[in-house]
UniProtKB/TrEMBL annotation:
UniProt name for this protein: Proline iminopeptidase
Family to which this protein belongs: Belongs to the peptidase S33 family.
Annotated source species: Cupriavidus pauculus
Source organism superkingdom: Bacteria
Gene Ontology MF term list: aminopeptidase activity
């Protein structure tokens, strides 16, 4: 067996900027790689997670021209942690505005976790704009997925961590953890808001990898990051992503003709593998890679290896011809 791939070397953006998308929101974006090479857009997770320098390193900088951006309310986009005019469909429109800004007809769309949700929503809305899809940790924001992670399911795997997640919530309100957290995260008590944000964020950080990763947990415990992550994620999930239950699987036929890759960890706790498998069945144009010995995080070796293989594979398609 060949050795697992490592990320491309660290690379600095060749361009950074902001885009006023209306509704009071200004997005931070950066471009990395080689101007005029194969265009791609990277969609981060969360919602509310933001981009990081390591995300740039998933693409060969000699063969890609990648746009990365912080979605509404998080990272370096402003206003920080804002829930106003912040929905899935606002973000789909934002992606189109960014595509028009850089002047490409099509681009590869790469999304993991919540980024896979957003990538699917974008591709199903604007299929002609998508040359390829690379998805990791597929999440469809169904009621069953949300209950599994925030009410009963993952709680059985991590009872110690679940107890810490429950701690900020009064016992009488634990029958609906998402609603209880929404009250705390949107309340006027700043101290309780930050306590809830950290607990919500750390719950995710401590359950997304097969083996514990203290670096991820430390990042999610930092107040500024946690506030945007928890508020925006809870906001989106409370509204089920402004999607009909099962919509992204129902409308998978709209992806017909788009080549793609689905990468999913066998032991992905936030995103049960059955939904990635269902997407694969509904979208046969995509290759499916189920990674044994891996959880949810893109940094886990088997997952990272397949993601790099996917971006390398599609980098070879530099004809520039549009897919009809």
């Amino acid at each position: 067996m060949s050795a697992l791939r490592t990320l491309y070397p660290e690379i600095e953006p060749y361009e950074t900027g902001t885009l006023d998308v209306g509704d009071g929101h200004v997005l931070y974006f950066e471009r990395v790689g080689t101007r005029g090479a194969k265009p791609a857009v990277f969609l981060h997770g969360g919602p509310g997670g933001g981009i990081s320098p390591d995300h740039r390193r998933l693409f060969d900088p000699a063969r890609y021209d990648v746009l990365l951006f912080d979605q509404r309310g998080c990272g370096q986009s402003t206003p920080h942690a804002s829930l106003e005019a912040n929905t899935t469909w606002h973000l789909v429109d934002d992606i189109e505005k960014l595509r028009q800004l850089i002047g490409v007809e099509q681009w590869l769309v790469f999304g993991g976790s919540w980024g896979s949700t957003l990538a699917l929503a974008y591709a199903q809305t604007h299929p002609v704009r998508v040359s390829e899809l690379v998805l990791r940790g597929v999440y469809t924001v169904s009621r069953a997925e949300l209950d599994w992670y925030y009410q009963f399911g993952v709680s059985e795997m991590f009872p110690d961590k679940w107890a810490r997640f429950q701690a900020p919530v009064p016992a009488a309100e634990r029958g609906n953890m998402m609603a209880a957290y929404r009250k705390l995260l949107t309340g006027d008590d700043r101290e309780k808001q930050l306590e809830a944000a950290r607990a919500w964020s750390v719950w995710e950080a401590e359950t997304i990898t097969l083996l514990p990763n203290p670096d991820i947990a430390a990042k999610h415990d930092e107040g500024h990051f946690a506030l945007a992550f928890a508020r925006i994620e809870n906001h989106y999930f409370t509204h089920r992503g402004w999607l009909d239950d099962g919509q992204l699987l129902r409308d998978a036929h709209k992806l017909a003709g788009i080549p793609g890759v689905i990468v999913h960890g066998r032991y992905d706790m936030p995103c049960p593998v059955r939904y990635a498998w269902a997407l694969h069945q509904a979208w046969p144009d995509a290759d499916f890679h189920l990674i044994e010995g891996a959880g949810h995080a893109w940094t886990e070796p088997g997952i990272m290896d397949r993601l790099l293989a996917a971006t390398d594979r599609y980098a070879a398609d530099v004809s520039g011809k549009s897919r009809n």
